[in-house]
Hints:
Structural class: mainly beta
CATH architecture of the largest domain: Distorted Sandwich
Number of domains: 2
Distance between the termini: 33 Å
Amino acid sequence: MDFEIETKTDKLVVFRLKSNEKTMQKYPFEFVLCIKYELMSDTLKVSYLVDNPSKNQLLFSVGGHPAFNVPLSSTETFSDYHVAVAPNRIYQQIQLQGNYSDSRHPLDFTAGTIDVTRETFKNDAVILKLEEKSTELTLTTAQRKNGIRFNTGNAQYVGVWSKYPEEAPFVCIEPWWGLADDVSASGELTEKVGVHVLKANESFSGFYKVQVF
């Protein structure tokens, strides 16, 4: 849907979307969603702001789909790149079964690095559970001294993805506050894995940062 421009300056723009008759037909909750883009030197901060203006609960998930051109140079190839994950600790890696997540059977991700190859994305995204702990993912090569440094802010999950088997010239680093429906889903939205619940007049905020270096 089209957002309204709420604020616009040289280094800041805020887009606003509000529930209406059309949204209520498919998503029966009142909401106000603002997405803020703020440029700070070599860093872009993106914030999601969700307000519940009604007397009823608001159930939602939200997330981003930023994509980065790979390779950055004509002298490099897609597989020259990798995504380094810091801090290097044990993360739960959420598996996928088709379009569904399988949060009951996570794997331990301890590699510290995600190789950017076509085969990496054969089973779709590499999804890490972050537990809202700030995590830094760096998209670069072993030879270069520049690339993308991605801070996940307070995201619950991050997905690293590219198309397969198509050879798309990009890699996505996606911060998520929620997941796709789980294979064990009951069908009750209140029981959905990672769902957020806002009471009347409550608000939510999430953010991530992208630095070019």
